[in-house]
User: Fold this.
Amino acid sequence: MKGDYEMAIQSADWALETHNPTPEERALANLIKAQSLEKLGDRDSAMGLYQYVVDTYPKTPHSYQAGQQLRRLEGAAAGDP
Assistant:
């Protein structure tokens, strides 16, 4: 399973680097990367990327989803001892 998330990150990076994606496609690729990083246990990087999507692509539906994920992680972090 770890390999699947790593592959998702590589695929998103490839799409961002080799294509000329629209802002919505960029937001989606970064959202996929953030979700994959979170699944791999890299919560801080995931939170940073979720925030990036919210700040950089505010008019996309992916921004809303990234904001929800960010609030969930912030809430979980606030509950950590």
The longest helix spans residues 61-79. Residues 27 and 56 are 8 Å apart (CA to CA).
